Amino acid sequence: MTARRGLGLRLAAIPLAALMAYAATRGVAAPTPADGFERVVGLVALAGLAIAAMTAPPAWTLSGALVLSMFQSHWQLMGVSVSLDRYAMLFVIACVLVREWRHRDGRLQTQPVHWILILFGLYALGSAWIGGGLSDHQARFELIDKLGLIPFLVFFAAPFAFRTEADRRVLLGALVAIGAYLGVIAVLETTGPKALIVPHYITDPTQGIHSDRARGPFLDAGANGIALYACAVASVIAFIKWRDRRWRVVALLVAGLCLLGVVFALTRAAWLGALIASPIALAASRETRRYLLPTAA
User: Fold this and answer.
1) Which of 69, 96, 70 is nearest to 85 (CA)?
2) What sign has the CA pseudo-torsion 169, 170, 175, 180?
3) Can you list the alpha helix ranges (DSSP code H) found in the chain?
4) What is the DSSP code string of 104-119?
5) Theoretical Cys-Cys bridge with 211: which of 3, 127, 183, 205, CB 3.0 to 4.6 Å?
């Protein structure tokens, strides 16, 4: 493992040195010192992400990229000039796929669902190209983020990054941590004090939508409600899977906090999703059907 990390660092040395030099020139060429600082910070952070993606275990780096995705499209509001989550996700996915390809043992295989997603992505790109959407900066990011070209890649790479039970425990811990953060922010947005909310752009009513609801770092109450519900489910799984009593209590508290945040989102889509998805999921498995009536109550 140490030799592999050393090789990754040696392979990354030249492009990282070039990136650092580019960051310095971009900072010097900026119109103001503040703009230069933002550019340098963003590019240096990007270099750090590249090193982490090439040297750290993929379960950790992909989980870290998932954490960064909460601030998607809002990095400039925090003084960072590049979208760290997009680059982090692409770096991590590329490193995971290259690592799997090097094994040459047939592990990097596709399934029919992957080809369906590829065809759908090609159709969307072709449609955008014919309609002139690819020339629009905002439209390109809509394709990448909201249509889901990057999530499609994550769907393909995640089974390789989280291959073992230990890898999946890393992901589970990351989801519980995200749920704790989003739940606390939702409570602070609703009850205050809002001065404790970090980052501060969340409380800026001129940014995003739903400024009167719990919208979190997404600046959208619907997206925040869905993320809170997903983290609540992950926290319940952690409560069942974890063995340490103290951490099980933490997971249970986070689950309750997340469900409270779903309520504070004041979005019918999130409410209906939580109310409908939970009993359906419990009824789908024989092992969980006995929890259906207590959950409904």
Assistant:
1) 69
2) positive
3) 2-29, 33-55, 58-68, 84-103, 112-131, 137-141, 149-161, 165-191, 221-241, 245-264, 268-284, 292-296
4) -SS-S---HHHHHHHH
5) 205
Using pLDDT thresholds of 50, 70 and 90, give the confidence band for residue 244: very high
Q: Choose from 16-25, 40-49, 196-205 the range with maximum mean pLDDT.
A: 196-205
Give the global pTM.
Answer: 0.81
What is the residue-wise DSSP string for 159-190? HHHT-SHHHHHHHHHHHHHHHHHHHHHHHHHH
Which among 163, 170, 154, 296 has a CA at the least distance from the CA of 238? 170
In degrees and rounded to multiples of 5, residue 11 shows phi and psi of: -65, -30
Best-predicted range by mean pLDDT (64-68, 170-174, 278-282): 170-174
Please, what sign has the CA dihedral across residues 203, 230, 155, 8?
A: positive
Q: Token pair 């590019």 is at which residue?
A: 43
Neighbours of 136 (CB within 10 A): 12
The predicted-structure confidence for 9-35, as pLDDT tens digits, reads as follows 455 555 555 555 655 565 555 566 655
Beta-carbon neighbour count of residue 121 at 10 Å? 16
> Per-residue pLDDT tens for 141-166?
777 776 778 888 888 889 989 989 99
Overall residue count recorded for the chain in this entry: 297
Distance CA 152, CA 90 (A): 11
Helix (H) or strand (E) holding 72: none
